Amino acid sequence: MNKIAVISDIHGNVPALKAVLEDIRQRGVSAIYCLGDLIGKGPSGHETVDLVRENCERVVQGNWDDFIGKETSEPVLNWHQEQLGRERLEYLGSLPFSIEFVMSGRYIRLFHASPRSLYERIQPWDSYESRLSLFSGSELCKDPRDADVVGYGDIHNVYLQHLEGRMLFNTGSVGNPLDMTQASYAILEGEYGSRETAPFSVQLVRVPYDIERAIQEAADVQMPLLKEYAQELRTARYRGLSK
């Protein structure tokens, strides 16, 4: 049996990322996949990008990873661009849209927000039709066929649902969770690459980390929107910072 850890939405929070990576190391995981939004909101996008490149076998693009490379006069975005530097911005802009593979006889598709867009946001309480549409493919996907298992990030809310015999899950957020004040990620376990039906599971994991250290790191570099960022980390409530 193979184990694949799926992380997402780190948002420049290095203490949270390091806590998650350490937890993953202790679980005998075969590979780590990242579903985007490495940067933004938090202070250490540059270090986050470097850690993800070092530790993750496959990485897809998130909405922040997309728009951070575009020209802007927005001071907050300019600050994050300066922290990252040109080479990391180019790396973020080059990331693929989705990860697709077979595991234990199931076709699995992983992406940031939806199979159609980096910016389409679907919550666990949205309509049945909206959630069901996440199993469909599009021209942006590697293969347009419907998936049996879908995992995504973007919304910072962890959940797992079964819809018409298929499995839908959200990893939540490593660095900016908005459901409880602990980092989150998922583990897929099954026979990687096998088209034969075999046992398969999705485990959703919560990892405590040093929130005050993460806030202090933002304060040390005089990060913009520090107050809002600190409130989100301490309360797991949305304070208006872009997801």
Index terms:
243 residues, alpha/beta, Purple Acid Phosphatase, chain A, domain 2, 5-stranded mixed β-sheet, 10 strands
Descriptive report:
- The protein has one domain (2-235): Metallo-dependent phosphatases (Purple Acid Phosphatase, chain A, domain 2, 4-Layer Sandwich).
- The chain starts with a strand and ends in an 8-residue tail after the last helix.
- Helix content is 29%, strand content 22%.
- Strand 2, helix 2 and strand 3 form a beta-alpha-beta unit.
- Helix 7 (211-220) runs antiparallel to helix 8.
- The longest helix has 12 residues, at 14-25.
- The strands form two sheets. A five-stranded mixed beta sheet has the order 3-2-1-9-10. The chain has a five-stranded mixed beta sheet with strand order 4-5-6-8-7, with no helix packed on it.
- The protein is globular.
- By secondary structure, the chain is an alpha/beta fold.
Query: How many H/I helices?
Result: 8
User: What is the annotated CATH architecture?
Assistant: 4-Layer Sandwich
Main sheet, how many strands, which sense, barrel?
Answer: 5 strands, mixed
The CATH superfamily is Metallo-dependent phosphatases
Tell me the helix content: 25-40%
Q: What order do the helices and strands follow? A: EHEHEHHHEEHEEEEEHH
> What's the β-strand tally?
10
Q: Which residues sit in consecutive blocks of at least 5 with pLDDT less than 50?
A: none
SS-based class: alpha/beta
Q: Report the portion of residues in β strands.
A: 15-25%
Query: What is the total domain count?
Result: 1
Distance between the amino and carboxyl termini: 34 Å
According to CATH, the fold-level topology is Purple Acid Phosphatase, chain A, domain 2
Mean pLDDT: 96
CATH class designation: Alpha Beta
Strands side by side in the biggest sheet: 3-2-1-9-10
Net shape: globular
